């Protein structure tokens, strides 16, 4: 089921936000608080795109139904392309899709293996952590495990050499596990959804796309579109991405990337994403 409810008509001016995060991954919004905020602000549709997991979809859609808040099934997947981070937004997916679940299970397993390796290396340096503390880190979402290791070191006195905990964790082997982007696109399509490049204009640790890179990425992955409307994009980037999407007949999304009340959802217009919404069965009048 792509949305709750499953059949939806939106006015062209209806407020939407298609990138939001909760405590199911790295957000501080509880699902209930986020959905209450969206309903009170009269959003017509939203997408909770917690990272590299499908566990949030069923419970948040059930909760959304009780609040009469239409919610699109979605996930944000962490990939690496040409050595740099690229996030992909997957919309309108069936959370039972086997390829997508296999990718997510594999990522969690690889992240857990990395976390165990780091913990073992830290133990060789004299750190002693309770077994239940280590087990609690291993069940966290993959994107949180490296951060949890940093916090754990800080809670136990920090780097004995006096430096920050982050570099110590990296020297111990910590890494963020990622997917291959073409595999994510294929798995999304198998799950009945569409896949778009998230925040292509970000510069803080992500590959920053121009039109040339977008064309090359699209050729290699068959991605369906890109997140044109994003709060950190400059007006020039937004114009370039919109023109690129129109030229290549790609889908366009719009998302705030809100992780908590300090950076609330943004009321984008439904008609800015008309083609994307049509692909996932939502009619924009």
Describe this structure in words.
The protein is of the alpha/beta class and 285 residues long. The chain has two domains: 6-102 and 192-284, Metal-dependent hydrolases (TIM Barrel, Alpha-Beta Barrel), CATH 3.20.20; 104-171, no CATH class. The chain is built from ten helices and eleven strands. The strands form two sheets. Strands 1, 3, 4, 5, 6, 7, 8, 9 and 10 form a nine-stranded mixed β-sheet that branches. Helix 3 (98-124) runs antiparallel to helix 7 (181-190) and helix 5 (145-155) packs across helix 6 (165-171). The longest helix is centred in the middle third of the chain and has 27 residues, at 98-124. The radius of gyration is 19 Å and the shape is globular. The model has no long low-confidence stretch (mean pLDDT 96).
Question: How much is the average pLDDT?
Answer: 96
Give the count of structural domains: 2
CATH class of the largest domain: Alpha Beta
- The dominant shape is globular
Index terms:
285 residues, alpha/beta, TIM Barrel, 2 domains, nine-stranded mixed sheet, two-stranded parallel ribbon, 10 helices
Short summary:
The protein has helices at 31-40, 57-66, 98-124, 131-138, 145-155, 165-171, 181-190, 211-221, 235-248, 274-279, and strands at 3-4, 8-10, 15-20, 43-48, 71-81, 84-91, 194-197, 225-229, 251-254, 268-269, 282-284. With 285 residues, the protein is α/β, with parallel strands linked by helices.
């Amino acid at each position: 089921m792509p949305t709750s409810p499953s059949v939806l008509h939106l006015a062209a001016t209806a407020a939407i936000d298609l990138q939001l995060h909760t405590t199911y991954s790295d957000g501080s919004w509880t699902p209930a608080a986020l959905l209450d905020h969206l309903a009170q602000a009269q959003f017509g549709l939203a997408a909770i795109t917690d990272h590299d997991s499908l566990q949030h979809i069923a419970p948040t859609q059930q909760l959304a139904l009780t609040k009469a808040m239409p919610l699109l099934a979605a996930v944000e997947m962490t990939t690496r392309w040409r050595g740099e981070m690229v996030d992909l937004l997957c919309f309108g997916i069936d959370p039972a899709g086997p390829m997508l679940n296999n990718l997510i299970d594999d990522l969690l397993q690889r992240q857990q293996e990395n976390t165990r390796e780091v913990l073992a290396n830290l133990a060789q340096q004299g750190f002693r952590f309770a077994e239940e503390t280590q087990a609690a880190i291993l069940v966290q979402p993959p994107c949180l495990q490296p951060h949890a290791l940093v916090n754990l070191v800080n809670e136990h006195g920090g780097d004995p050499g006096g430096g920050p905990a982050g570099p110590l964790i990296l020297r111990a082997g910590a890494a963020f596990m990622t997917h291959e982007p073409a595999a994510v696109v294929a798995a999304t399509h198998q799950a009945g959804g569409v896949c778009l490049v998230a925040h292509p204009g970000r510069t803080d640790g992500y590959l920053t796309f121009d039109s040339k890179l977008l064309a090359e990425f699209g050729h290699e992955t068959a991605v369906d579109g890109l997140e044109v409307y994003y709060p950190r994009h400059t007006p020039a980037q937004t114009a370039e991405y919109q023109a690129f999407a129109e030229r290549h007949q790609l889908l366009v999304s719009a998302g705030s990337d809100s992780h908590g009340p300090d950076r609330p959802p943004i009321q984008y217009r439904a008609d800015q994403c008309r083609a994307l919404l049509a692909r996932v069965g939502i009619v924009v009048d």
